[in-house]
Amino acid sequence: DGGITQSPKYLFRKEGQNVTLSCEQNLNHDAMYWYRQDPGQGLRLIYYSQIVNDFQKGDIAEGYSVSREKKESFPLTVTSAQKNPTAFYLCASSIVGGTQPQHFGDGTRLSIL
Amino acid sequence: SQQGEEDPQALSIQEGENATMNCSYKTSINNLQWYRQNSGRGLVHLILIRSNEREKHSGRLRVTLDTSKKSSSLLITASRAADTASYFCATDAFMSGGYQKVTFGTGTKLQVIP
Q1: Which of A45, A53, B7, B75 has its CA 20 to 30 A from that of B63?
Q2: Distance between CA atoms of A78 and A65, rounded to whole angstroms?
Q3: Set of chain B residues whose Cβ sits within 8 Å of the Cβ of A45
Q4: What pLDDT digit, counting tens, does each position of A17-36 carry?
Q5: What is the pLDDT of residue B27?
Q6: Cβ contact (<8 Å) for B42 and A92?
Q7: What is the mean pLDDT of residues A43-48?
Q8: Average pLDDT for residues A56-62, to the nearest whole number?
Q9: Which residues in chain A are contacts of B48 at CB distance < 8 A?
Q10: CB-CB under 8 Å, A103 with B45
Q11: B38 touching A, CB under 8 A?
Q12: Each residue of B53-97: pLDDT tens digit?
């Protein structure tokens, strides 16, 4: 079955540490997205990519970095510069062109140790 | 900034009743989508309604769109316990480079009591 796989499901970060969240899709989608969700709130866009080797900052990119070396993969690194990283992180993908439904993974919950 | 705001924030109903959620937005849109999120899971796309459409149906779901009032509603008929989830509206606008920016609202938390 096609879909998006996020790993790990739970992640703990120590002070000053960078951590990387994995996102892999086998839907053959060109566009991929990273969102942050805080309790009781909607989703906020961190980064998005419409094609391999290209990505753009979203609304809250500070303290985060991404890469898009392969169509299937869009890892997100939460750097030590992100002072409040505790949140639920969601990865999504879609077809490019017009308005397309986004397909989501099941998220990674990041907490601070 | 949040484009869509759902109302109510939380809704509790008995199984078999209808559930209505509303979404209001501020700026002109191309399309509006509704998503469902079960607790601790990712979002699932439910339905998309284009700005030139007024109503759309999908199974037990009915979505309306009033662009003059900048609002949309999602009606779930004959609700089931499995409908318990948070529901989000998402509006979009085309940005430079052809990118479709989707902005999600804060969601309505629906509880369906068996």
Answers
A1: A45
A2: 7
A3: 101-102
A4: 999 999 999 999 999 999 99
A5: 86
A6: yes
A7: 94
A8: 94
A9: 99, 101
A10: yes
A11: no
A12: 999 999 999 999 999 999 999 999 999 999 999 999 999 877 666
- Note whether A43 contacts B43, CB cutoff 8 Å: yes
Choose from B6, B46, B63, B100 for mutation: most chain A CBs within 10 A: B100
Q: What is the pLDDT of residue B1?
A: 44
Q: State whether B106 and A41 contact (CB < 8 Å).
A: yes
CA triplet A84, A87, A89: central angle to 5 degrees? Answer: 125
- Alpha-carbon distance of B69 to B60, in angstroms, equals 24
* A:B CB pairs within 8 Å: 55
Give the rounded percent of residues in chain A with a pLDDT score beyond 90: 83
